[in-house]
Amino acid sequence: MKISMLVTILLGLNIYASDVRGVSTAQFTTEILLTIGAEKQLVGTANLWNEIAPELKEQFEKIPELSKRSPTKEQFYELNPNFLTGWKSISTKKNLGDVEELEKNGVEVYIPKTLESNSLESLYEDILFFGKKFNVETNARALIEKLKKQVELIKNKNIYKKKLKVFGYDGKEDFPYVVGGGAIGNTLIEIAGGENIYKETSFGFGSGQWEKIIDSNPEVIVIIDYDNASSEEKIEFLKNRSPIKMLEAVKNNNFIVIPLNYISSGIHVVKGIEILSDGIDKIRNKNRE
After folding, report:
1. CA–CA distance from 63 to each of 89, 142, 183, 228, 248 (Å)?
2. Whose CB has fewer CB within 10 Å in the chain, the N or C terminal residue?
């Protein structure tokens, strides 16, 4: 191949990458993209459930935030986007349109693999995809290596410790909305030294049963904190009005509060494991007293 032709191809690839006009509709995808340096190609964000990571705030504030939840089609198409990623529910007919409609309108859709997997490898694959798509592959690979090393350190710290049974409570009162076995939250609990009582389920977050929780008698209750209800409100309900208020874990305040974006996929997985691991350690030690 002639050098001139090779240069033309490479330039074409760079032009393609720099021409990405992306919209991210999940906090975890937004924070990944900002961390690997793709902010100049992000034209919009949405669905911020917790505060953005402080180290990313300056970059984040330069990008239009379309909505705290799902943006409208009008808001979305005003940005002339050609790439969409985030929660799978966004690319449905009731929101921005299904994948077929979006692609027909010139928008490539990438549903993160980690949304349907409990493997950290799926997170690394997503990061690498974004790195290649936004022409920041070196940064993406560096982030992956950093996360892998940090996760391995915590794994080694907890490998010989007795696992405690964990109930992950997202919310709701008529029935519990729980952390299931089908997403990364389950894996973070395991690495931290816990055993999710809903590990056999295929969903990431889903409907549970109060009877199942009573029968399982968890030793740890993880409270997912975001703006649907405060962690204090959730704990007050569990302690005073819930069907599981008689459990020892509830009576002994064996609660670990963790922000939603720390028990979901994304750049906070290591911090999430640390929060869970430290909390489980404290409860483990308390049980010995």
Report:
1. 22, 24, 28, 25, 47
2. C
User: Helix, strand, or coil here: 15?
Assistant: helix
**Which numeric CATH code is attached to 3-147?**
3.40.50.1980
- Which pairing describes strands 65-67 and 42-46: parallel, antiparallel, or unpaired? parallel
| Structural tokens at position 185 | 């939250």
Q: Does the global pTM surpass 0.85?
A: yes
Give me the CATH code for the 161-288 domain, please.
3.40.50.1980
Rounded to the nearest angstrom, the gap between the alpha carbon of residue 127 and the centroid of all alpha carbons in its chain is 13
Q: Is residue 36 within 8 Å of 140, Cβ to Cβ? A: yes
Domain boundaries, the chain: 3-147, 161-288
Domains 3-147 and 161-288 share a fold: yes
Of 25, 50, 59, residue with least CA distance to 272: 50
pLDDT of 3 over the 50 cut: no
pLDDT band at 18 (very low <50, low <70, confident <90, very high): low
